[in-house]
Amino acid sequence: MSAVAEIMSPGHELISTRIEERSEGGRVGYVTVNNEAKYNALPAEGRRAIGEAMRALSHDPDLRAIVLTGAGDKAFIGGANVSEMSEFPNARVAEEGSAQTHYACDSIRRAPVPVIARINGYCLGAGMEIATSCDMRVASRNAKFGMPEVRFGLPSGMEACLMPRLIGWGKTMELVYTGEMIDAEEAYHFGFVEKLVDQSELDAATEKWVRAIVTAGPRAIRLQKELNRDWERMSIADAVQQGIRAVGRAHLTDEPRRLLTAFKNRKRNK
């Protein structure tokens, strides 16, 4: 696993970032929301700090993956700060606050490596949008999911628009119209999370994904992340051609040859 761990400050007390040197090579970033007493709810500046942490990590050429989680075992991100939202003086300030959720989500999606959401409890509102923006999601069985905005007189916006791609239009409509929560089993059933485990197994399940990523070809992982985002906006025909070009770009270095040769040698030695 790790050889050296380094603590880096992203410039906000609610968000901490740890960079871990991996014995397999490269580094992994761990971003944690630290507002456990309030179920890791985030004011606008906290959501912006997630974006800043993601962008700071993204500058590291040796970065292999990022894990995003909440402190404690009660919440991933319990949503935006309701007290702050109730005091917005006008529409412009409300829009500016919402824009910080988008900034966090967009920074996750623009990160050049996979971002894993380690969901350890309540994942509500802005928290569910942030989780939606991650590449992979693993949740503990005690997690709860919901989009309660309509109960506060607000529509679900920003990256809630990505949810139908994960769980379909019908389930998305149920969540955004009713504001009701669903449990982790239902979220897993509808495809919002890819892996569901007991709370005690959450770290091991997350690490299994991280290890798989860091032992893969680092350039291939970055090309795949880029290609995944291209697929979202391209026709099937264009996406196929983009994939062909990505394979060609991979062969601009010796990474495919090295990894393929290593695989052949392992197979030969069995």
Q: Give the overall silhouette.
A: globular
CATH class descriptor of the largest domain: Alpha Beta
Spatial order of the strands in the main sheet?
A: 1-2-3-4-6-8-11
The biggest sheet, with number of strands, parallel, antiparallel or mixed sense and barrel status, is: 7 strands, mixed
User: What do we call the CATH topology of the largest domain?
Assistant: 2-enoyl-CoA Hydratase, Chain A, domain 1
The whole-angstrom Rg is: 19 Å
- Our estimate of the beta-strand percent is 15-25%
Number of strands: 11
How much helix is in the residues? 40-55%
Structural class: alpha/beta
Number of domains: 2
As an assembly, this protein is single chain
Write up what this structure looks like.
This protein has a seven-stranded mixed β-sheet with strand order 1-2-3-4-6-8-11, sandwiched between helices. A four-stranded mixed β-sheet has the order 5-7-9-10. It contains ten helices and eleven strands. It is α/β, with parallel strands linked by helices and 270 residues long. The radius of gyration is 19 Å and the shape is globular. The chain has two domains: 2-214, 2-enoyl-CoA Hydratase, Chain A, domain 1; 218-269. One of its GO terms (molecular function) is enoyl-CoA hydratase activity. Its EC number is 4.2.1.17. One of its GO terms (biological process) is fatty acid beta-oxidation.
